[in-house]
Design brief:
Length: 312
């Protein structure tokens, strides 16, 4: 990607934050014409096609052995099928900004599941304190003490499930693929290729249970904007975003690159306010700031692998 290589890393970083932060807006637009399962399935399939084409163009070989593909499939469930579905289902009940705040719990969930799955990764007092602080922020966002005016608790918890799923997936990725080399674009490409069949099966089962056509939109009037939103989610929000991420990591390292994660909710909340006229209450804004701050506290000065940056 010679053109990308010549651009300042600051511009690439900002573009990446805008692309991933805007994903929650595009999900909301896609839901105007499609069922949540249709949105998540099309997103993964379009992303898989995009990344395969990019891998072919860059001559990036994919894994060849069955064991690696099997392990990637396990990780893919938690990194593609489950979170992509959770966020879009959540947005049928809550705002896009709140869904993005649910995504911000990923670093907190990663610490918790590292305790269970990575015995060698001992938690520091700073990390444990950040987990407690982050949990408090989640409670503030949910506002369970309010009888009226609080966000839909079920919807927000589904969004939190999406963030937790990323934490599980990246922890499993570290454990299951330790010592297994899946370089460059081969890793996200394999994740999308293995995630696509999962979402397709879930789509067919869900449509069979509820009795609707899996390929037919639920609202033809909003079809074109919704199709454009899905295309942006798959092509730009996944394929191009990974290219940008790799270039930022190459330029300034994984630690600086990982800071983009904490700007995603800011972008999503801003776009929700400007474009969708969404409003967040005071407790949601305070809680979001606490959750993001907890993620920054967890990161500290620790060097992160480029593949561990969670996608929207």
């Amino acid at each position: 990607m010679p053109v990308v290589n010549r651009l300042p890393w600051q511009l690439l970083w900002l573009t990446l934050a805008l692309v991933w932060g805007s994903s929650f807006l595009w999900m909301k637009v896609a839901l105007e014409a499609f069922h949540p399962m249709q949105v998540s399935t099309m997103r993964v399939v379009v992303a898989a096609v995009t990344l395969v084409l990019l891998a072919l163009a860059l001559r990036q070989p994919l894994p060849r052995d069955r064991r690696t593909w099997a392990l990637l499939s396990v990780c893919s469930f938690f990194l593609t099928a489950l979170p992509f579905t959770a966020f879009v289902v959540a947005e049928t009940r809550i705002s896009s900004g709140l869904a993005a705040i649910g995504n911000a719990v990923t670093p907190i969930a990663t610490v918790l599941f590292a305790l269970l799955l990575l015995p060698s990764d001992r938690p520091t007092p700073r990390k444990l304190a950040a987990v407690g602080i982050g949990f408090g922020g989640v409670v503030l966002v949910a506002e369970p003490w309010a009888s009226t005016g609080a966000p839909d608790l079920v919807g927000f918890l589904i969004a939190v499930l999406g963030g937790v799923s990323y934490g599980i997936g990246w922890t499993l990725n570290r454990r299951l693929l330790a010592g297994t080399e899946v370089p460059g674009l081969a890793h996200p490409t394999a994740l999308m290729l293995t995630g696509a069949p999962m979402t397709i099966v879930a789509l067919l089962v869900w449509s069979g249970i509820e009795g609707w056509q899996p390929l037919a939109p639920v609202d033809d009037a909003s079809l074109l904007p919704a199709l454009a939103a899905v295309a942006v989610l798959g092509v730009l929000g996944t394929g191009v975003a990974y290219i940008l991420q790799f270039e930022v990591v190459r330029a300034v390292g994984p630690t600086v690159s990982a800071t983009v994660t904490y700007f995603i909710p800011v972008v999503a909340v801003g776009l929700g306010f400007l474009v969708l006229h969404e409003r967040l209450g005071l407790w949601q804004l305070v809680g979001a700031a606490i959750v993001i701050g907890a993620g920054l506290l967890i990161q500290g000065r620790r060097t992160r692998k480029p593949q561990a940056a969670p996608a929207a």
